[in-house]
Design a protein that fits this description.
Blueprint lengths: L5 H11 L5 E3 L4 E4 L4 E7 L6 E5 L2 E2 L7 E5 L2 E6 L8 E7 L5 E9 L1 H12 L1
Parallel strand pairs: 2-9
Antiparallel strand pairs: 1-3, 3-7, 4-5, 4-8, 6-7, 8-9
């Protein structure tokens, strides 16, 4: 039997490691102007770095976009939604092929009031 070389063991360990996957995908969200919108996902492994995107463009942490990681759970929070915040959001695990996507719809406060008024008549 031939001895295993250290570089061969590293390759075997790398091949045996399962890719990261989503345990909980993003889900579509509906918000009202000035309300909070939150996207949440959970990965199969903790503390993995992810990138958030809106309409295919990267998002950075800011007053407008709060990005939080808690172990395997990742959150994108929009504290005060505006109509222009509506769009397609996705989260991608850096260095992996795993991606999850969802839509955010934002309704104006007048839209909600009008909708409720007509439904009660």
């Amino acid at each position: 039997m031939e001895p295993l070389h250290s570089c061969g063991l590293g390759l075997l360990a790398h091949l045996a490691e399962a890719p990261v996957s989503f345990v909980k995908d993003l889900t579509d969200s509906v918000s009202v102007e000035n309300d909070v919108a939150t996207f949440e996902c959970e990965l199969s492994k903790p503390n993995k770095k992810v990138s958030w995107l809106k309409n295919g463009k990267p998002l950075k942490p800011s007053d407008k976009h709060e990005i939080v990681t808690e172990g395997p759970r990742h959150f994108l929070r929009i504290p005060k939604c505006e109509l222009k915040d509506a769009g397609d959001f996705s989260v991608k695990v850096d260095g992996e092929s795993a991606v999850s996507s969802a839509k955010l719809s934002v309704h104006g406060q007048c839209d909600i009031f009008t909708s409720l008024t007509f439904k009660t008549s």
